[in-house]
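Lab notebook, bench 4. The sequencing result for the construct came back, and we need a structural model before the next group meeting so we can plan mutations. Quick request posted to the team channel:

Model the 3D structure of this chain.
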Amino acid sequence: MNWIRRLPPLFFIGLLPVVILLGLWADSIGYRTRWERWGKDSSLQVVAIAARVFVIRIDARTWEPEGHERYIYMGPHPGETAAFGRLKFREKMPGKMLSADWFPAVERNEQVIRFGGQVYEQRAQVLPFWLILVCYLPLWLGLAWWQARRRRKRIEAELTGT
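Done. Here's the predicted structure in token form:
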């Protein structure tokens, strides 16, 4: 247990996001967690589902007869008063919407939806959890190693009296 005390504080601070990401990853197979923020003419949604994180932006506008575009009001939803959007945890998914593959590929989607005189432009970036962890782990462990090395050098300098 003495080896745990020698680990740098940055190691334990960085461990929390890893535990949260692993929990969200496992939870996203059967449930959906989402955060959404509605603006005057657009929305931003972050959805964790099927081992993926979807970052979705929707812009809405109408087309005037002369061809000029005019943005329309999209939100907020009735009853939404949160200044930072709305967060919903563990929404049960009816059946399998997406494949439950634990290691999906990176995707990027763009759609234009025309409904009546309105046009909705939807852009989505889909990041799998494994990619987020692969990008985060080297950064976190590298910084923890650097902090441990600095602490060790400082302690050695204090012991030698220099």
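The chain has three helices and seven strands.
Will bring this to the meeting.
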